[in-house]
Structures are given as C-alpha cells and as structure tokens.
Amino acid sequence: MRLVLTPSTKIVLGWTAIISIGLFGFTVARDSVIQNRKALMDMKKRIREQARVEGEAELERKFLERLERERKNDITAS
Question: Contact, 5 vs 13, CB < 8 A?
C-alpha cells in the first residue's frame, strides 16, 4: 500500500516544518542571548567587586599615610 499525499496535506506538512524549524532557531538564539547576558552580568559583578576592593585598599593606604604624617607632626611638635 502506497501513501498518497494530497496537495493540501503537502502544504500543511511544509508549513509545519517551516514553523517548527523557525521556532527551534528562535529558541536557540534566545538561549544564546540569555547566556551572553549572564556572562556580561557576571563580568560586571566581578569588575564592581574588584573596584570596591581596590577602593577600600586605596582608602586604607591613604588613612595609614595620614596617620603616619600625624605621628611625625606630633613627634616634631613635642
């Protein structure tokens, strides 16, 4: 027994294939965009954390320099 497809069935199968492939492509592209956004957010988070740590280190260094200057001023004033 041979399967005979009518023209309307062929059209339906063709559109089904086109839509399925399009949706699959959209899903893959969306997942790629989501992964890129996550990677970008992680990178920004690491940069902010590094800047915060470096800023704290800079403040600590300035504080110690000021403390040392005040000690020297106290010693010379005495």
Answer: yes
